[in-house]
Amino acid sequence: MGQIHELNSVLADQIAAGEVIERPASIVKELVENSLDADSKRIDIIVENAGLDSIRVIDDGIGIAKDDVPLAFRRHATSKISSRKDLFRVQTMGFRGEALPSIASVADVELTTAQEGENAGAMIHIRGGETLANKPAPARRGTDVRVTDLFYNTPARLKYLKSPHTELARITDIINRLALANSGVAFSFTHNGKEIFRSAGNGNLQQVVAAIYGIQAGRKMLPISGEDDDFKVTGYVSLPELTRASRQYITITINHRYIRNFELTKAIIQGYESKLMVGRYPVVVVNVDLDPVLVDVNVHPAKREVRLSKEPQLTKLISQTIRNRIATENLIPDVDAQAFTPPVKDVVSDLQRRLKEAAHPYNVTQPRSTSTATVSQPALREEAPSMDDGKAAVAHAEDTDGEVSAPVIIHKAGELNSAPMREFDARYQNEGAAVPFGETDPQPQPTPSAKAENMELDVHDKSDRAQGRFPDLQYIGQLQGTFLLAQASDGLYIVDQHAAQERINYERYRKEIGQVSPDQQTFLVPLVLNYSTVDAMSINNHIDLLASVGLHLESFGQNSFILRSHPTWFKEGQEEDTVKEMIDWLLKDGKLTVRQFRMKTAIMMSCKRAIKANHHLDDREARALLRRLPQCENPFNCPHGRPVTVHFNDRDLEKMFKRIQESHVPYADDFDDHDF
């Protein structure tokens, strides 16, 4: 008898599970993707002990027909493709028919499902690949899958799982990516009875970003949109001031499928050019819509990696779209005045409700003004405390000429409707307390997810200065030989003199280097370059590319090359170093253009020739620097991404010196019931 035999189906499924089901997050991903393929509009994920005890996914999709339920757990059984032609035009998340049998082979699975119009649904219970029950069951439209005892029959897998905290983080990351890719689906994620994440499912991607990364991050996201004959790019990218220390905050989806692709990630970063700090990465959510024939998703067991046709065209479109969008923004960061303001304690919900009923409408109904205060505007010095506590509340203001107007004295809540108070309201209607996202009533603080669902995000907080892009700065003086102090109509600006001149130099050198001719200068003595075997093979494969940037290399032995001339725009005395640096970039990136090299060269030259810190400038030099800065194409960042200037608006300064004070929020202990 021969030694070759066919494996039984359970063992084959367990082998497949080793590729598809790596950890609890893999199960969540596969089940949620099945729910998305079922046209679900709401998906609830409920997890116990980071998925090691239980994973449950409930959706409101089209469900599974009763007769198809047992078949769904057979290997390579699927409703999503039928022929080889379909395999190369995949338009669903799943298509191989591996997920359910793989999960059922290493866990205990119960599935309950029903379709629209059916009197009863179906329930199937499978443990370790063996069917324990298959019977009718009452069910609503949709599917409910519960997975327990994960890896109970393959204990070796448990050894490779990380701590529950790490596994939970991986599950959360998967759900976040799926929510970002499908903003029209309402997701909820609960762990050990505590809600971790919720999205509204209203199609507003910016709200999903805010629910995941926070409200402040959501405010600093810019919408992007670009397309050509083959691709359509949409999504949100962060302002350069909002960055993270890793690329993990970059989400790329192809036809709303989350993927990882190094070239597309690099294209996103290149879209920011020199506006990012070294080692910092933006928060980005980008979706690419394309014909399914242009992408092959059948190259990785977990479908995280794909092959793209016309990838260079797509990378160029992404970079250009991001570059054009950011070019329209004022990128001067504002100083956070809240850092100089004492924190205010949260007020209990009941107290807030009673204050809301007693307070005058001017405190709670006036919309927040988006205009920036100037020194010519009057400033509110003190806001009225509570009424009816036996003490008079006084509201008074400082006029523009420095004189204090007559106070408006309030003895009881009813006097808030008096004529002097209405006049006071009209005069200072733009001085209401700042309320996030245009809320008008003080409410108990909801979770970030709930805030994101109910509030419209405003990404134009700097609209007053965005029109002019860069202010007309008037020089005041120099601080510690490093910073220039300047003023404009909207406040104080602090300019980093090194970063400012570095930006000015960079744009000049980039222009000068870009205007050079392709003429060649012959070496008096030809330059011989020696490389390792692997590097020499790579150089030989890119001989034509090097020639296109002016480096005409000739083979000179097994791993050596000879160069007889170089482009005339090379800096005298640095020819050899420049040639070696260009080849090193080619070996690292696999491609090189004249534009890329000239940009890097301009950055290097601008930094070395810029003013250093602790270098004192006279007034003439400082004013000349401030005059030239607004003429730059990008006056906001140095070529390395550091900010050139920061801004204190007038309101920030007035708050710092207590010329404007926050409302005195009363606490519950300060009141008796009769006060209300």
Would you kindly provide a written description of the structure presented here, covering whatever features stand out?
There is one protein chain. With 676 residues, this protein is of the alpha+beta class. A hairpin with a 2-residue loop joins strand 23 and strand 24. It is flat, with a radius of gyration of 32 Å. Residues 337-405, 428-467 and 663-676 have low confidence and may be disordered.
Name the descriptors:
disordered C terminus; 8-stranded mixed β-sheet; alpha+beta; 23 helices; about 30% helix; 5-stranded mixed β-sheet; flat; about 675 residues
Largest sheet features: 8 strands, mixed
**What would you report as the Rg, rounded to the nearest angstrom?**
32 Å
| Number of continuous helical runs | 23
Q: What is the CA–CA distance across the termini?
A: 94 Å
Average pLDDT across residues? Answer: 75
Low-confidence stretches: 337-405, 428-467, 663-676
Strand order of the largest sheet: 5-4-3-6-2-1-7-8
- Percent of residues in helices comes to 25-40%
Choose one word for the global shape: flat
Structural class: alpha+beta
Query: How many E-type strands?
Result: 28
Beta-strand share of residues: 15-25%
